[in-house]
């Protein structure tokens, strides 16, 4: 089943700080090409929000791994 990204949803959950949902909606699979922002009629900065969510998800994973290693 091919995976489809939903930039508008990713933007919403990212802005709300809902990292688990952003991850569930495959934020990490976004390649930040900018096509979604180019076609967004409201000119929302979708890529920036997704990029921020990706960084926060990866940081959260890194911190969890460090906690596991320190035990």
Descriptive overview:
By secondary structure, the chain is mainly α. It has helices at residues 7-15, 19-24, 35-39, 46-69. The longest helix has 24 residues, at 46-69. The radius of gyration is 13 Å and the shape is elongated. The relative contact order is 0.18. The model has no long low-confidence stretch (mean pLDDT 91).
Chain-wise SSE layout:
Elements: H1 7-15, H2 19-24, H3 35-39, H4 46-69
Helix pairs in contact: 1-4
Count of individual beta strands:
0
Largest sheet geometry: none
Q: What is the general shape?
A: elongated
Given the structure, what is the number of helices?
4
Radius of gyration based on Cα positions: 13 Å
Question: Hey, roughly how much beta strand do the residues contain?
Answer: under 5%
**SSE-based structural type:** mainly alpha
Runs with pLDDT <50, length 5+?
A: none
> What is the mean predicted local confidence, pLDDT?
91
Order of helices and strands: HHHH
Please give the alpha-carbon distance between the first and last residues.
Answer: 39 Å
Q: Summarize the amount of helix as a percent range.
A: 55-70%
